[in-house]
Amino acid sequence: MNPADRATTKLDLSFTRVVDVPRPSVWRAWTEPELLMPWFCPLPWKTVDCEIDLRPGGIFRTTMMSPEGTEYPNVGCYLEVLPNAKLVWTNALLPGFRPNAVAQTSGSNDVNFLFTAKVELADHPQGTRYTATVIHADEAGCQKHADMGFEGGWSTALDQLVAMVKKGI
Amino acid sequence: MNPADRATTKLDLSFTRVVDVPRPSVWRAWTEPELLMPWFCPLPWKTVDCEIDLRPGGIFRTTMMSPEGTEYPNVGCYLEVLPNAKLVWTNALLPGFRPNAVAQTSGSNDVNFLFTAKVELADHPQGTRYTATVIHADEAGCQKHADMGFEGGWSTALDQLVAMVKKGI
Fold first, then answer.
1. Which residues on adjacent β-strands are paired with residue A65?
2. How far off is chain B from A4, nearest CA to CA, in Å?
3. Are the beta carbons of B114 and A101 separated by less than 8 Å?
4. How many inter-chain contacts (A to B, CB under 8 Å) are there?
5. Which of A57, A61, B4, B123 could bond A75 through an S-S bridge, CB–CB 3.0 to 4.6 Å?
């Protein structure tokens, strides 16, 4: 591992799993609001609203609700949309690619941090190879995201996605 | 004009001109480092370095030099690349779409501000219809950019571009 790789490791979080559902179903679960809301937050959190404009520069907005009923809105925009293969979005830009003045780097005490997220899907003999990667502006933001339980949270959400797809969508 | 339009007006700067050079030449002047450096800064400022990776997520980096010899590096990434028609980039993201921790909103006292810039080219009987638009995170950043002489600077640079193209590229 060269020094550049080591530096990047401190800024990025990623995991890969193989899931036994078809790629197009995973894609639909990520890109249709009615199919995203049921699985997107690990229970008992819920996703109570979702808006998707599936094109570079288009809005990706969700509202998560805590078990106590507090709502947490999130807004960003898509950067790359390759159907059934790759979806990239960021909270550093608002719809239309406008820089987001609200998002703060983790240098502040705010709980928010800037990130760009990427979901990649590939064919696999058992179904779909699923890779989720989140890249950050700085090590503090990356560490905060790791401490929040990035891999556990995203992996539990993926379990919920798979269960939903198997029930039929 | 509805309230949403008025709000946007305070966040965006834009101008349109018709220039009597062909669209493909303007595109090349914006996308080939050797053709960008001669015109990109209004003289006596100079552009002394330029790196271009012309794809969404690819680097757009320039180094400007003041008449006194101080260098000012700028780095961002492309968001949309439609040859001869539309070029969009931002300094809110680094290459690979990584959020930029260095860039600050204008809420700080830093001279930097976040922006996304768009150059659009269209056919016109006299040559090319050229529209440059810069959108900002907040009104303060937009005002700072206006105070720096956005339209005068970009328009002078465009004059330099046209003069270069007419000499032959």
1. A46, A71
2. 14
3. yes
4. 77
5. A61
